[in-house]
Amino acid sequence: MAAELLRETFEIQGRNFDKAGEVSGEIKVILRDLGIDAVNLRRLVIVAYEGEMNVVMYAHRGTLTLILTDDDLNLEITDEGPGIPDIELALQEGYSTASDEMRELGFGFGMGLPNMKKNSDEFRIESEVGKGTSVFAKIRLNANA
Amino acid sequence: MPELKHGFKIDADKCNGRMSCMRACPTHAIRVKNGKARLIPELCIDCGSCLGVCTTGAIYATTISFAELDRYKFKVAVASPALFSQFGIKDTPAQVGLALLDLGFDAVWEYAIDIELIDRAITDCVKKWPGPFPLISDACPVVVRLVQVAYPSMVEHLIPIEAPREIAGRELKRKYSQELGLKPEEIAAIYITPCQAKTISILQPAEETKSYLDGAVGISQIYNDVLSRMRKNASFRETPKGLVSTAELLHWGPPEGEFPKLSREHYLPLTGLTDIMKVFNDIEKGKIRNIEFLECHACQGGCIGGNLTVENLYVARSKNLHLLANMPKPGFLFEKEVERRYAVEDFSLRASVKPRPIEGEALDLRERVTRKKRADELLRGLPLLNCGLCGAPTCKNHAEDVAASRADVGDCVFLSRDRIDLLRQIYKK
């Protein structure tokens, strides 16, 4: 396994729509300044943002950890929330459990998780109903350059 | 990559080191060391914020002088519509056009046609575009540079269509070289510009091609000359004849690059860098949906709010509305010329815009991570007051400069008392 170069963890507050997106914004600046190429940067920011929004919309709180190695970018998004009963169903495009309130805010089109998967080279979800969810996404640095 | 040029210069002799420019710069591209401002070229996006706040005039736009124009046999002015909104309510575009001729230009280009052509080209491009959306206008050079520097993952959103001033330059060279039997290089296409940023788009286009224009003259640079000619010369008050009798072809429609033809619900006009950056942050996250085209101008209020204009934005805007209300709609000739040119000309951008290489790109990822960690560590020892006395606009910038061996950590007054004495020396009256 490639050596870990950088690891940073950020807190995400559930239900705080005012601050939603700030963590992905910070990550973007870090990776841009590290000279990560435009294509991978774009993919990672989309994964981070959708992941962050899922925590904001559904969970009490969560963390997003960015891990950079020589070969890839990794995101681990872990939350304390309701969990996902049927992961396969949740990954289908258009499937959504968002409330009307969330939809009014422009979210909940059932594209979040599918979009994260689409923009990752490896993608995995672990969830326990009533406890929380962890999402792991990997973007390989050389695969899309 | 050739050396990066910019649309302004800093005169070290005039600079008194008061740091207004450093604090105003949105990309933190200015440092003030030893009482003198200097630029980090890779970070500068030519927005001109520094020009506006410099109290000593040390920062000046590198526009072209009239003496430089003498080497051309035929000089054509392409006037930004912003020019016509700078004078009195009774001063018509035709009179401004005559004053430009009197000033030494051999012709004033009918620029409204080029603006109309690009309006059409953009509308067509938006309709056919496969994605990614939204497309972003590229007529403002600052917006293009902002994307290259701060939003590299969004370069594909820049619309691949030339700016109207560029196709004006191309067509006027074609037309006059044919009509007058001159070589294209003997004809000067000079843009009368509301900002210094257009200068840099002529000197060094972001897409790394060669501009069709030969230089830019600032509106403020010729304002007094144009005004005095209009006031002194009685003949300017009469109905102008010849070229400028079709003054609507100099000025028609809203200020440069506003595209009323696009449907309002899928089109966002944005002005001002702060607002543009807010929207760009959202685009980057994939948050903006259903918007097809963003028209972005870095200056608040668009080009009539440019830093080389004279009249204040609001008065100029009102003047522009007045002009439009009192001008006949362009007639048959206008439509005919638009149709003719639209059929034969290609408006696509000649090369794609790429992200601008970041500083120290020669370093590999590991070295950059080491540098970042070093900067994070240094930052913990700094006061986070962003006082600027070290010569960097923020403590974070100072930490990064030190990590990049561009500054000495002791430049911070909190870390070294000698620094205060040194500053006292530099800034003593």
How many domains make up the coordinates of chain A?
Answer: 1
Number of strands of chain A: 5
* CATH class category of chain A: Alpha Beta
Helix content of chain B: 25-40%
Radius of gyration of chain B: 23 Å
Shape of chain B: globular
Ends distance of chain A: 20 Å
Q: Roughly what is the average pLDDT of chain A, rounded to an integer?
A: 89
Structural class of chain A: alpha+beta
Pick out the low-confidence regions of chain B: 239-246
Question: How would you sum up this structure, described in words?
Answer:
The complex is a heterodimer of chains A (about 140) and B (about 425). Chain A is an alpha+beta fold and about 140 residues long. Chain A has a single domain (about 5-140), classed as Histidine kinase-like ATPase, C-terminal domain (Heat Shock Protein 90), CATH 3.30.565. Helix content of chain A is about 35%, strand content about 30%. Chain A is built from five helices and five strands. Chain A has helices spanning about 20-35, 40-60, 85-90, 100-105, 110-120, and strands spanning about 5-15, 60-70, 70-80, 120-130, 130-140. A five-stranded antiparallel sheet of chain A has the order 1-2-3-5-4, covered by helices on one side. In chain A, helix 1 (about 20-35) packs antiparallel against helix 2 (about 40-60). The longest helix of chain A is centred in the first third of the chain and has 21 residues, at about 40-60. Chain A is globular, with a radius of gyration of 15 Å. The model of chain A has no long low-confidence stretch (mean pLDDT about 90). Chain B is of the alpha/beta class and about 425 residues long. Chain B has three domains: about 1-60, Alpha-Beta Plaits (2-Layer Sandwich); about 65-345, no CATH class; about 360-429, 3-methyladenine DNA Glycosylase II, Chain A, domain 3, CATH 1.10.15.40. Chain B has helices at about 20-25, 50-55, 65-70, 95-100, 110-130, 140-150, 165-180, 195-205, 220-230, 275-285, 315-325, 330-345, 365-380, 395-405, 420-425, and strands at about 10, 30-35, 35-40, 60, 75-80, 105-110, 135, 185-195, 215-220, 265-270, 295. Chain B has a four-stranded parallel sheet with strand order 6-5-8-9, with helices on both faces. Chain B has a three-stranded parallel sheet with strand order 7-11-10, with helices on one face. In chain B, helix 4 (about 95-100) packs across helix 9 (about 220-230) and helix 5 crosses helix 7 (about 165-180). Chain B is globular, with a radius of gyration of 23 Å. Classes of the chains: A alpha+beta (about 140), B alpha/beta (about 425). The interface of A and B includes residues 28 and 35 of A.
